[in-house]
Amino acid sequence: ILIGGSNWTDAGRAALQGFAEASDIPVLAAFRFQDQFDNFSPVFVGEAGVGMLPHVKALIRDADVILAVNVRFGEMTTDGYTLLAVPSPVQKLIHVHGSDREIGKIYQPVLGIQAGPNGCAAALVPVRGGWGAWRAKARAAFEASFDAPVQPSPVDMVAAMAHLRGLLPDDVILTNGAGNFTVWPNKFFKFGAKARLLAPQSGAMGYGVPAAIAAKLAFPDRVVVCFAGDGDFQMNCQELGTAMQAGAQPIILIVNNGIYGTIRAHQERNYPARVSGTTMQNPDFVALARAYGYHAERVARTEDFAAAFDRALASDSGAVLDLDISPEAITPRQTLSQMRAAALAARDKA
């Protein structure tokens, strides 16, 4: 089962989860829709999006039937259109969507159903089959994906995310913009039934800060945490002025590695050692945040993160934590130097 899209209700999500669990069918979320299905359910197995994990690719590629509910197919959910053949997938595709313009737009389904997600979910009747071990293997791979190497960085985001998974409330709202840093809220957090993720489908830098302010205004009693890269934060950090005037107090974590990480990664993979315009000189984010009335700290060591985050939670004025991240920690499982070395080796071999 592949789910996504908006307009889900609590009843619709519960109905789909009940069907999936009764049928023992693995569930994948489309790009940045993982908050629409309880990640603690034994049938949830991951997100089909940027940085797609190997077990997720294998699930889509090897499936005999895919029930896609409320999904708009595109590059992100199909690993660049490599997992399903265009226009007729090898997998038997059942595509459910509220718009007839989405059904068959890219992939021709064996069965297209024009229906909203909640009505569809309520109508599903559990089925039985011999795929339980397949589902269990996928779930185990999802759980294992949270174990990543110790990061070569003053602040280790693997450790920081482990702390946040154990600390944040069930109804937390996470937001992010665009950049390599989004792997942390998108791939290293488990969204329960009440948690929500506000994140761009379009790769829009700077989305996370205004989304967090809006979320805090709409739900002032909920914890709202924004993840922002240093470049991403500077797209519209002046919106802290809006937050100050409106009385919004989200917590903003600046994953500050001093580079435009995504662009730098593309440079190193395609033109290794030819760095151009991706190294940044940043302002004093702590001083900037304090000027807007926020509690602010620079966190320079992993062991200081937990206490700093506690102070952020306790602040009644919102908080900005500037996290000292090494550019070497460009991805959870490959350093910047390793990325460059691999690209140089491939170039020399060619």
Description:
By secondary structure, the chain is of the alpha/beta class. The protein has two domains: 2-144, TPP-binding domain (Rossmann fold, 3-Layer(aba) Sandwich); 157-349, 3-Layer(aba) Sandwich (Rossmann fold), CATH 3.40.50.970. It contains 13 helices and twelve strands. The protein has helices at 10-23, 54-62, 117-123, 132-144, 157-167, 183-187, 208-218, 230-233, 240-246, 261-270, 285-291, 305-314, 336-349; strands spanning 2-3, 27-30, 44-48, 65-69, 92-97, 111-114, 173-176, 196-198, 224-229, 251-256, 295-299, 319-324. The protein has a six-stranded parallel β-sheet with strand order 3-2-1-4-5-6. A six-stranded parallel β-sheet has the order 8-7-9-10-12-11, with helices on both faces. Strand 1 (2-3), helix 1 (10-23) and strand 2 (27-30) form a beta-alpha-beta unit. Helix 1 (10-23) packs parallel to helix 3 (117-123). The chain is globular, with a radius of gyration of 21 Å. The two termini are 40 Å apart. The mean pLDDT is 97.
